[in-house]
Amino acid sequence: MKILVTGGTGFIGSHTVVELQEAGYQPVILDNLYNSNKEVLTGLKAITGRDTPFYEIDSTDEAAVRKLFETEKFDGVIHFAAYKAVGESVAEPLKYYENNLGSLIVLLKVMKDFGVSNFVFSSSCTVYGQPDVLPVTEDTPRQPATSPYGNTKAISEDIIRDHVYAKPGLKALSLRYFNPVGAHPSAEIGELPSGVPSNLVPYLTQAAAGLREKLVVFGDDYDTPDGTCIRDFIHVVDLAKAHVKALELLNRQPETNFYDVFNVGTGQGNTVLELIETFERANGVKLNYTIGPRRPGDVEKIWAQSDKANSKLAWKTEKTLEDSLRDAWRWQQKITKG
């Protein structure tokens, strides 16, 4: 089966390409390289031993996407391509709505016209906002988003649901990610943000490598054991494998016009300070960090209950937080050395 992976040179997308190939799928990458690097293709080949077809296309460009679907016959689509920085989305909301919603609508239209039925959407636990009860399940009510980025994920889920309800022949799943961290154990691919990282772990590893003066922890006065935010940190390889399981479920699903959502997390919450301590312990590195003010748009605490994914997707996490932070540091050391 040939699977289009939009955003396939990005952090989660590239790891999913590896897992798709190992599971016998043929991934094809679409990416505009806005927040990724074409050198990722070299890392993918080093891991898999083969070249992955790559098209430098913006997924909001409907004409270019249509031409790609005419060139390649796809059996499914995994849609990662989206802007994802919470802080930037607060500052530039229109940029996020235009890109994140526009790319989704283009893909759904083109998939319908070309009769491609299997669709896996990269969603986020941000749709839960700040939940009243933890851990969150898929039945936890969605709260008003705390950022435009989070709102694009909630609106995207609604667009997919409404589209499926209109009976276009689509089978779709939304995977609500928690906090992906780590890198491939080979250190051939990992998180490679352009400019200043917006995610915690690449900023942390850059600070540990001396590329940043220090790590700033945003707030230590939250209602948590040590005052810092709590997140569910999941190894990116475990997350990538969930996409393979999602495709398998869609392939088994006899009903067209089908839609469901899944939490993809470890079920374990860790504070930011716990993450820092775990990184230092796992790698024998002392980190220079300081406490700063709270950051707009941040949720205080959230972690998953992933029982539904465990049972219906036959998926579960295999790697620990220590594994994630060792792999992230190994990746950072490789790219720092060049």
What would you note in describing this structure?
The protein has a domain of 232 residues: Rossmann fold. The radius of gyration is 19 Å and the shape is globular. The longest helix has 22 residues. 48% of the residues are buried. The strands form 4 sheets. A 7-stranded parallel β-sheet has the order 3-2-1-4-5-6-11, with helices on both faces. Strands 7-10 form a two-stranded parallel sheet. Strands 8-13 form a two-stranded parallel ribbon. Helix 1 runs parallel beside helix 2, helix 1 packs across helix 8 and helix 9 crosses helix 11. Strand 1, helix 1 and strand 2 form a beta-alpha-beta unit. It is an alpha/beta fold.
Uncertain residue ranges: none
**Order of strands across the main sheet:** 3-2-1-4-5-6-11
CATH class of the domain at 2-182 and 232-267 and 304-318: Alpha Beta
How many angstroms does the end-to-end distance come to? 36 Å
Q: Secondary-structure blueprint of this entry?
A:
Elements: E1 2-6, H1 11-22, E2 26-31, H2 40-48, E3 54-56, H3 62-71, E4 76-79, H4 86-91, H5 93-114, E5 118-124, H6 148-165, E6 171-177, E7 179-181, H7 200-208, E8 215-218, E9 230-231, E10 233-235, H8 236-252, E11 258-264, E12 270-271, H9 272-283, E13 289-292, H10 307-312, H11 321-337
Parallel strand pairs: 1-2, 1-4, 2-3, 4-5, 5-6, 6-11, 7-10, 8-13
Antiparallel strand pairs: 9-12
EC number: 5.1.3.2
Pathway: Carbohydrate metabolism; galactose metabolism
Family: Belongs to the NAD(P)-dependent epimerase/dehydratase family.
